[in-house]
Amino acid sequence: MTTHPSGPTSGQPLAGRLVLLGITGSIAAYKAAELVRLLTAAGAEVQVLMTHTATAFIGPLTLETLSRRPVMLDPLELLPDRRIGHIVAADTADAVLVAPATARWMAAMANGLSDDVVTATCLATTAPVIVAPAMDGEMYAHPATRANAATLAGFGYRIVEPEVGALASGSVGQGRLAELPALVSAVEDVLHDRPVRAPDRSAWPPTSSMTPEPDLAGRHIVVTAGGTAEPIDPVRFLGNRSTGRMGVAIAEAALARGARVTLIVGMTSVPLPETATIVEAPTTARMRDAVLAVLPDADALVMAAAVADFRPVKTADTKVGRDQGMTLQLEPTEDILAEASALAHGRAEAAGDPDARPLLVGFAAETGSLERAPAKAARKRVDLLVANDVSEPGSGFGTSTNRVTIVRPGAEPEPWPQLTKLEVGHRLLDELLRLRPTPRRH
């Protein structure tokens, strides 16, 4: 059993403490990275919780890197050992700091609506909760928000009032997130006479298993992400439920490990990493062109996009009216991975050097069974095929976790446990390094 001293050390008033930082969807969320740094400097271990709207303002990868723990994004999320993530956090935290707290989050919390991981954790914990509102001045002054703040104070939550100043809307008023040192001081204040709640760190949420070493430096990783949209008319399209979260997680993992990343995106609903080269490819045809254009320079091609299998034979030039009715005749789209694989293998064989081609990774989204995956891997001549059952809870489109099975040529499929998509991305990159320890020969 690993234990930690029950009190602070000199100069680190939060030493030995586990602090949960709940981030909600305010533009002030960008300050969370510095807040994690300040809490860590005060000695705290930090576990970040984010609502899905918060991820539009700051990427989870940044916060995971700073906190050294996978960010919790969903109340249904399981830890690798199958414990419920937010319950583990709630049971072991010394304090919860919600900063920034939006008007919507305060309303949900005041009424016990646990549809996000931050609210669910606050409902499940007996640790002290500090709430730092941030919003437009008129929103904060509204009687509903004031009533909700009073309700939270009635729960025993400490409210750190926002400051008066310039706001994101351009107006001036009370709604600006309190200064970050004041938030850290509030955490220190509520904990100064309390013992460490869970001295056994093995009970805490786990630290990240990611390797921050730049072991992909000098390599060019190409990743496709999101779904393709095949137009029916200028307004409508055929698409799928892909959000792009898995492909973006792979791209973020590769960037964190020093790779140069080209991210070819279809239709996505998650933030894209700023340091990647982004190529927009909303249709299968455009994604094919983008992939083939960059293929000769790639060390690895990871086809995580959910590419449409069919498209309309004809696309209307103007919007089809409801009174006209609609009958669609479909044709197969290009098989991008099969074409890229044929070109890559052909060039390597012509050069007489099997390492003169990029490594090829395919994805297979199935429902109910993965029995077709090995045949697909063999047919497309990929180095790895990542198969998952998208009908399984925690493994489908839009979730923060995934449960995948890795198919390698000539080997038995290897099921992986349910992991965050970022963890899947890192483990997948580990596989590529094992297949090819050095960059390809161009």
Largest sheet: 8 strands, mixed
* Widest beta sheet: strand line-up: 12-11-8-13-16-17-19-20
| Total strand segments | 21
CATH architectural arrangement of the largest domain: 3-Layer(aba) Sandwich
Shape: globular
Radius of gyration: 24 Å
- Measured as a percent range, the helix fraction is 25-40%
Describe this structure in words.
By secondary structure, the chain is an alpha/beta fold. It folds into 2 domains: 18-203, 3-Layer(aba) Sandwich (Rossmann fold); 220-316 and 326-435, Rossmann fold (3-Layer(aba) Sandwich). It has 13 helices and 21 strands. Strands 12-11-8-13-16-17-19-20 form an 8-stranded mixed β-sheet, sandwiched between helices. Strand 6 (163-166) and strand 7 form a beta hairpin. Residues 1-10 have low confidence and may be disordered.
Helices and strands in order, then pairings?
Elements: E1 18-23, H1 32-41, E2 45-50, H2 60-67, H3 85-92, E3 95-101, H4 103-110, H5 117-124, E4 129-133, H6 137-141, H7 143-154, E5 158-159, E6 163-166, E7 172-176, H8 180-191, E8 220-225, E9 230-231, E10 237-238, H9 245-256, E11 260-265, E12 277-280, H10 284-294, E13 300-303, E14 310-312, E15 330-332, H11 336-351, E16 359-366, H12 373-380, E17 384-389, E18 401-402, E19 404-407, E20 414-415, E21 419-420, H13 421-435
Parallel strand pairs: 1-2, 1-3, 3-4, 4-5, 8-11, 8-13, 11-12, 13-16, 16-17
Antiparallel strand pairs: 6-7, 9-10, 14-15, 17-19, 18-21, 19-20
Helix pairs in contact: 1-2, 1-8, 3-5, 4-7, 9-13
